[in-house]
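User: Is it possible to get a 3D structure for a protein together with its bound compound? The compound here is 4-fluoro-L-phenylalanine. I've pasted both below.
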Amino acid sequence: MTQSNTKVRENWGSRIGVILAVAGSAVGLGNFLRFPTQAAVNGGGAFMIPYLLAMILLGIPLAWVEWTLGRYGGQHSHGTGPGVYHRLAKGRPWAKYLGIAAIFAPTVITFYYVYIEGWTLAFSYYSLTGGFKDAIAANEMSSFFSGFIGAESNSYFHNHTPAIVFFLIVFVINYFVMYKGIQGGIEKLTRIGMPILIVCGILLAIRVLTLGTPDPAFPDRNVTNALGFMWNPNWSALSDVKVWLAATGQIFFSLSVGMGCIMAYASYLRKDDDVVLSSLTATTTNQFVEVVLGGSIGIVAAAAFYGVAQAQSIASSGSFSLGFITMPLIFEQIPFGGFFAFVWFLLLFIAGVTSSVSLIQPAITFLKDELDLSQNQAVTIMGIVNFLVTAFLVFTIQWGTLDEMDFWAATVCPVVAATIMVFFFSYVLGIKQGFAEMEHGAAIQVPRIFRFVLKYITPTYLVVLLVIWISTEWWSVVTLEKVADSAARNWIWGARAILAAVAVTIGWIVVHANRAGKFPQITEGKR
Ligand code: PFF
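Assistant: Yes, that's possible. Here is the predicted structure of the complex:
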């Protein structure tokens, strides 16, 4: 027995528990803020074509792969990329380093995601206490938001204290859940959180869809036209490569696939647990929440209240503007608005926290598996790092540091990490063995066509995406061509230095674990 096998690995308490946890990871701020704005600016109904295609050719197959590799890794005491790939490649020395991307992405996303979660909790609080009730014009609400996040000092906020206080509260909540572990922490949280989230979402969707014509002085501004704006297809959008990149990016982000979160979660499954149906159930839940609920709240309400032209400009100013500026203004104009604003921000908060715990998990799993740290030690270390990097973001957000981290961790890295993941599944393990592993204990069969998809289509799709991205945007982004302000350039380089330090640290831990015998030669000829 190797050293690591002597430790008993935690397990999920039930099948519904793990499904809700993965669905909780997927259903996040992305569903309610990112999806509607992306769809609205990228062709409306036409956006759904690349979106559905990406879901079928990338999202669903990658989720199956990630669940499968996670459960497989867990059987060998590894729940993250380095250990899993090392074993799949029968101990080839390079394999373990390819796993770094799948720890890097979720860990870096954590740094800013938890911070934004703090905003949602703060705004739920302000909804109840009337914190922004005097901000009735768009520019006032916008100042309120900018002041709160510390991007500017104004009559609403003079310093960062409120943002820091709410960050600390969500920070403590997140790490308390992590400290309690898989069953006692994450499973409990998502079992309670997910039903509340769905109820809040349905309530808000019904409220928005029954808005009718909010202002009779503007008969054009009504729910029917708003839905038309959101969903009428603009077919010409399909010839724009940006629309395809956006749809694919949304699928990745929304389903939380390819980044190592699902892998870490699935490593706590039992050997015979189903992965095929469970994965599909979690995906379906996310898609329902995203398209049906996410697609009926934000932008639809904005278009019903302010008309289509204005909604277009709201959507192009980004998800935060919709969520934290437009929505509060709308709620101020409807009966019981304070209550609905509270429900809206509570919904975002719950969606956020059930996702952030999944973003933190790969780092914890990695530290425990590869350095033999205890739960407490691993949670404490990740907590300290999270705290420090988020503190950097709190004070530098106005220079674009948060966007920079988001770009590398949530746009570039997932595609790279997913390409590596599917390479290991389809080519290192091989489709035949891979499917045998996937279908072990499965409650349903995977349609045969997905063997072809996973061998040829998914990898090609991913590589094409990378090539298009590198050839169109790479250089101007890397050299910060579009950033004129020199202070911003310095801070963005600072953010990049932090990202490099995170990647190097993960690499160093892999080297260290290797020396400690965590990645032994696999000689028995079997994985
Ligand atoms: N899926 C989450 C959302 O839609 O907000 C965010 C997320 C969670 C992304 C976990 C990636 C991840 F690994």
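Residues 54 and 248 are 6 Å apart (CA to CA). The radius of gyration is 23 Å.
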